[in-house]
Amino acid sequence: MRQFLGALDQGTSSTRFIVFDRRGTAIASAQQEHRRILPGPGRVEHDAREIWRNAVDTARLALDRGGLTAADLTAIGITNQRETTVLWDRRTGEPLHHAIVWQDTRVERLVAEHARRGTGALVRAKTGLPLASYFSALKMQWLLDSVPNARAMAQAGDALLGTVDSWLLWNLSGGPRGGLHLTDVTNASRTQLMSLETLDWDAQLLELYDVPRAALARIVSSSAVYGEARIPELAGVPLGGMLGDQQAALVGQACLRPGDAKNTYGTGCFLLMNTGEQRVVSNAGLVTTVAYRLGERPPCYALEGSIAVAGALVQWLRDNLQVIEHSADIESLARGVPDNGGVYFVPAFSGLYAPYWNPGARGVIAGLTHDSSRAHLARAALEATAYQTRDVLAAMAQEGGLAMRELRVDGGMVVNELLMQFQADILGASVVRPRVIETTALGAAYAGGLAVGYWGGLDELAANWELERRWTPAMDAARRESLLRSWRRAVDRSLDWA
User: pLDDT tens for residues 107-142?
Assistant: First the structure.
C-alpha cells in the first residue's frame, strides 16, 4: 500500500534517502558520504558516478531499515546541491568529467572577461544573479571548452549538461534507455541561463555563455509527475518533485507566505525570504531566485543571501589547525570563555558571497592579543556565521520591504545552542528550530506528495510544522551595535586582498 513519501537528498558532502509519513515525520533513512576531489587550487569536484551509486544504495538501505518496499512509496521527490554541474554521455551514461562543485572557482578568469565586456548588468537583469564563479553557466562553458569533443557532442545532443537534479532524474528514469532530461525552475534559476521572466532558457544568454540548448534539460515545475522510477530498487514509484536544496528547505520549513524566512546552516549558509509572486530586484548584494513552482500555479520567488563558509569553518579548525578533535567539540570549547575577547574571524577563504560579492576577499582573524586562546578562536568562528547571517538579513530588510516575523533555522549547526542564542542576540529577533530539522529532504517529499495528491494543499504542509525550540534576544542594543561595528571593521580588512 502506497502510504509514504521518499526523498532523495543529494548534498555537497553526502547523499541521503529519507522516508516520511503524512505528518512529515522521518520513519527510515540512510546516508552515505562521497569523496571531495581537489585537483588543484580553487578546484572542487565530485565523482557523479559515485553520487549515483550512493543514491541507489541509500534508497535500498532506507527501505530495508523501515521494512518497506517500493510499493509503499506514493512518490519520490529529489533535492540537490544546486549549481554543481555534470556533463555526461547520453548514449553510455558515463560522465565525461568530474562534476564541478558550486564552491569551485576555476572560472574566475571567465568572470573577469565577462565583467570587462560589461555583460554583468544584462545577466542580472535577466536572471537576478551577479557575475560570479558560483553559478553553473561558466562551469558549463569551461567543461565544453576543456573536455575533448564535448562541444561537438553537446551540439548534437549526444552530451548532456545539467545540475545534479537532472543527473539523478535521468538515471532514475532509465538513463541511456530513455531517461528523462529535465530540471525544475529552482535549479534552472541558478544556472544564469534561464530568464526569470519566461522561465525558459534565454537565447541571448545561451549565446553569451556559448552553451547549446540541445544539451540542456527541459525546464519543468517543481511539483509535477515527471515519470516513474525504472531501477529495481524503486521500480514504478512516481517521480514527482524536484527542488534545489535551499528552496526545498524553504518549503520544508513551511515558509510559504511573503516575509517568511529560513536559514540553513550547513557547509555554507543559505538564507531565503519568500517574496511571493513578486520578483524583488536587489541593489544590495542579494540574488533574486525562484522559490518554487507548484504544478501550473504561478511561480513564487525569493530573495537569497548565500554565505560560502559556515560549518566548513568548524571543519577547517578541526582539520587544518587541529583546534578541536571533533566538530561537535566546538561548542564546549567556545563556552570556556564569556565572550570573543575582541577576536573576529572573517572566513573569506575564496572570497565573500552575499551581500559583498567580493571574489578578492580572503580570510582574516582580527583582534588577537596575548590573552587570546583557542577558545576565543572557536567562539569567533561560531559568531562569524551569525554575523554573516545578520549582514544578509539587514540587506533583505533594506530591499524586500517585508517584515521578518522570525528566522526559522535548520541544518547541522542548529544543534549548537550557543550559536543559536548568539544568532538571536545579534539579530535582535527570535530564532526558531522546528521539530523536524531534516527540512531539505522534507521539502522534496512535500513537492512529490503534492504532485500526486497525497496532500491537498499548502495548508496541510503548514499544519505539519511544529516548534521544537525558540531563542529570544537577550543582548542590549548598545552591546549589539558595538560588536557589529568591530565585525564590519574586520570585514573591511578582508576585502580585495587578492
Answer: 999 999 999 999 999 999 999 998 989 899 999 999
Residue indicated by cell numbers 544573479: 129
Query: Taking the mean position of all CA atoms in its chain, how far away is CA 259?
Result: 20
Closest residue by Cα to residue 246 from 50, 443, 453: 443
SS3 sequence of the chain? CCCEEEEEEECCCEEEEEEECCCCCEEEEEEEECCCEEEECCEEEECHHHHHHHHHHHHHHHHHHCCCCHHHEEEEEEEECCCCEEEEECCCCCECCCEECCCCCCCHHHHHHHHHCCCHHHHHHHHCCCCCCCCHHHHHHHHHHHCCCHHHHHHCCCEEEEEHHHHHHHHHCCCCCCCCCEEEHHHHCCCCCECCCCCCECHHHHHHHCCCHHHCCEEECCEEEEEECCCHHHCCCEEEEEEEHHHHHHHHCCCCCCCCEEEEECCCEEEEEEEECCCCCCCCCCEEEEEECECCCCCEEEEEEEECCCHHHHHHHHHCCCCCCCCCHHHHHHCCCCCCCCCEEECCECEECCCCCECCCCCEEECCCCCCCHHHHHHHHHHHHHHHHHHHHHHHHHHHCCCCCCEEEECHHHHCHHHHHHHHHHHCCCEEEECCCCHHHHHHHHHHHHHCCCCCCHHHHHHHCCEEEEECCCCCHHHHHHHHHHHHHHHHHHCCCC
One-letter amino acid for residue 205 of the chain: L
Residues pairing with 7 in the sheet: 18, 77
Other Cβ atoms less than 10 A from the Cβ of 132: the count is 21
Nearest to 107 by CA among 80, 82, 131, 81: 131
State the pairing for strand pair 287-292/300-307: antiparallel
- pLDDT for 178-229, tens place per residue? 999 999 999 999 999 999 999 999 999 999 999 999 999 999 999 999 999 9
CB 73 within 8 A of CB 5: yes
Summarize the confidence of residues 400-411 as an average pLDDT. 80
Angle at 178 between CA 173 and CA 180, to 5 degrees: 50
Residue 135: closest CA among 299, 287, 282, 355: 287
Q: How far apart are CA 287 and CA 120, in angstroms?
A: 13
pLDDT exceeds 70 at position 402: no
CB-based burial label for 329 (10 Å; 0-12, 13-18, 19+) = middle
3-state secondary structure 160-213: EEEEHHHHHHHHHCCCCCCCCCEEEHHHHCCCCCECCCCCCECHHHHHHHCCCH
Distance in angstroms (rounded) separating the CA atoms of residues 218 and 431:
38
Rounded Cα–Cα distance for residues 303 and 259 (Å): 10
